[in-house]
Amino acid sequence: MTELPMTGGRPVLDKVTTAAEAVGLVRDGDHVAVGGTNYSRTPMALVFELLRQRRTGLTVSRPLSCFEAELLLATGTADTLMTSWVGIGHGWGLARVVRHFVESGSARFEEWSHLALGMRYRAAAMGVPFLPTSTMLGSDLVERTGARTVTCPYTEQTLLAVPALHPDVAFLHVQRADRYGNAQIDGYPFMDVDMAYAARRVVLSAEEIVEPELLRREPTRTVIPHFAVDAVVHQPYGSYPHECYGGYEVDAEHFTEYMNQVREHGVEGARRYVDAHVRAHADFAGFLATVGPERLARRRRGAQELMPA
Predict the structure, then answer these.
(1) Confidence (pLDDT) at 245
(2) What's the fold here for domain 32-114+166-274?
(3) How would you class 272 by CB atoms within 10 Å of its CB: exposed for 0-12, middle for 13-18, buried for 19 or more?
(4) Where in the sequence of the chain do the CATH 3.40.1080.10 domains occur?
(5) If you average pLDDT over every residue of the chain, what do you get?
(6) Residue ranges, the chain, pLDDT below 50
(7) How many whole angstroms separate alpha carbon 202 and alpha carbon 33?
């Protein structure tokens, strides 16, 4: 990484590196927040590298989780999952692997409402210990999570005090970034910006690495600043088989192949997926090569057909 002059008391560095080096920032037992939501703009290249490096004992948080949560549990990479929901979506059924691990007591599942989890990241991003809200009140999630209530000093209303959440590392995928870590997100940002400010370390993968001058043409679109980012990985199709807005659509056939394997083999089906699609290759490019350019191109055409003319 090349160091440039200081700005605002922080060094501006060329942070472009490989996924293998970037994911090296994760240590066993860390809390890793995964950006995007469900199967949208998931940093799959970084998740695959995490599986490849065989970290253990991780806590993984995500607003809405997809089958990456099953892969992390099935391989022992994670033993705690913090989210509001897990599954691929309509047509594929429940997250069978997650259900197995939770019901057998092999993994810990900490459920927060979607809003509450977002507010936990937001509180950490703001630098406050908690944020007050009415979400989850009246449900057993309050007791199960150990969250506490407070009394509003103005209205005397009982509110939930959602505690700040500071992940050790956040994995995020964006459409474009410069080499210093300034990044732009097209479409919904989900909770990624708050994650970037909340996490102690941030690894960013990007479809494109562009020159800083390009980002300066529309500065208001740069939602993640360089000083929040520790590493930048250039990875086209970095969310595949999930979707990336404007770039490529989800590969539903790939999801079906995975779910069929899980239906037939259970947890072992998820492990076989990791062996065949992740650990059989030296990097994410190797996985994409097995998918083939034609199939990837179809996913790209499908996404571009939905974009404004």
Answers:
(1) 97
(2) Glutaconate Coenzyme A-transferase (3.40.1080)
(3) middle
(4) 32-114+166-274
(5) 95
(6) 1-9
(7) 9
